[in-house]
Amino acid sequence: MKEMKFETKVIHVGGEPDPTTGAIMPPIFQTSTYVQSSPGEHKGYEYTRSHNPTRTRLQECLASLENAKHCFVTASGLSASSLIMHMLPKGSRILCGDDVYGGTYRLFSKVFSEFHDYKFVDTTDLNKLENKIKEFKPSLIWIETPTNPLLKISDVRAISTLAKANGALTVVDNTFMSPYFQNPLDLGADIVLHSMTKFINGHSDVVGGALMFNSDEIKEKIFFYQNAIGPSQSPFDSWLVLRGIKTLAIRMKAHEQNALKIAHFLENHPKIEKVLYPGLPTHPQHKIAVEQMKGFGGMITFFLRGGISESTQFLKSLKLFALAESLGGVESLVDHPAIMTHASIPKNVREDLGIFDNLIRLSVGIEDSLDLINDLENALAKI
Ligand code: P1T
């Protein structure tokens, strides 16, 4: 059979009917352990921290979506990031994009900084990045693209080439695009990371993470640390993600259609200072977005005219957009990064990046776009 298309893979890879009963929906293997016929003789499963058949199915599906040989799913996006950090020898140097999820910044600067050395740099500027690589000699380059929350886009192909030439691995946090709109391994990256909590699961009812890659050596290391430390996802949560992922392709199309309309609406609104959306020609890296992404996603960041009181008034007035951390669910969410998702980044670092009190982040859901625009229009009128 020819290679399946994305829309088919999300439904069929890992979704085969149960061979023992014919159940079209795979069962949840809600078990902690597995019976052995003789010590060490088993069917490939010994203990659920190490392996679980429901998780195996999800891993197969996710690997196929990122065109990867291997996948591990974990209990959260941050535990997937932690596994990568554990895998590196003590004292490793990591060059990280300067605009990343606040929890990633905290994990690196407050937890793993005891073991490794971190430098944060603007990875959208290739000259600056190359100089930093030469000076700092990192063994790993970590990028989010598009970034959270400023939606900055880095050139994955160029960075992976630079990294390889300098003996470094490239990790791409692909959470904002999902495997539907971007496949970093195809662009030369070594490891892809997802917070499955977001678009992959898509229903705001699971926390989870995933790592995809091709190297057998990395597989051995990640498996060792996953098993030794224990951040494995529960079978029930893996099953929920298997259920949610079936609609990933149609959800991503709907998120994008709505986001494009909303981005245009906001761009033309007098109370908005600036809109950042990769699909707008005014986005500073729009050209790279077109080249390396298959679409522009459902995240929009914008600056209101005003400060904290205008932002607060706007956020309190929204009715459909729920004020909540997280993103990527079918329902629309709104976030105030400076107070919420990026509060763990020191104020001076945040403001150097441009994360001010008038910055608002939207995760555009798949509701009717006119209802969403009405909601935004009404809330803007209240300012
Ligand atoms: O929340 P968790 O599943 O552990 O994933 C962490 C994470 C990793 N990478 C990116 C790009 C993320 O956005 C996140 C989590 N982000 C939020 C909770 C948020 O509201 O931005």
Question: What would you say this structure looks like, in words?
Answer:
By secondary structure, the chain is α/β, with parallel strands linked by helices. It has helices spanning 6-12, 53-65, 77-87, 102-111, 126-136, 156-165, 178-181, 216-229, 235-245, 248-267, 286-292, 308-317, 347-353, 369-381, and strands at residues 70-74, 93-97, 117-121, 140-144, 169-173, 191-195, 209-213, 272-276, 299-304, 322-323, 333-335, 359-363. It folds into 2 domains: 6-245, Aspartate Aminotransferase, domain 2 (3-Layer(aba) Sandwich); 248-381, Alpha-Beta Complex (Aspartate Aminotransferase, domain 1). Helices cover 39% and strands 15% of the residues. The chain starts with 5 loop residues before the first helix and ends with a helix.
CATH topology of the largest domain: Aspartate Aminotransferase, domain 2
Supply the CATH superfamily name of the largest domain.
Answer: Type I PLP-dependent aspartate aminotransferase-like (Major domain)
- What small molecules does the structure contain? ligand P1T
CATH architecture of the largest domain: 3-Layer(aba) Sandwich
How many domain units?
2
Major sheet, described briefly?
Answer: 7 strands, mixed
Q: What's the structural blueprint in terms of helices and strands?
A:
Layout: H1 6-12, H2 53-65, E1 70-74, H3 77-87, E2 93-97, H4 102-111, E3 117-121, H5 126-136, E4 140-144, H6 156-165, E5 169-173, H7 178-181, E6 191-195, E7 209-213, H8 216-229, H9 235-245, H10 248-267, E8 272-276, H11 286-292, E9 299-304, H12 308-317, E10 322-323, E11 333-335, H13 347-353, E12 359-363, H14 369-381
Parallel strand pairs: 2-3, 2-4, 4-5, 5-6, 10-11
Antiparallel strand pairs: 1-7, 6-7, 8-9, 9-12, 11-12
Helix pairs in contact: 1-2, 2-9, 3-8, 5-6, 12-14
Ligand P1T binds at residues 76-78, 101, 103-104, 144, 148, 173, 175, 195, 197, 207, 209, 325-327, 335, 341.
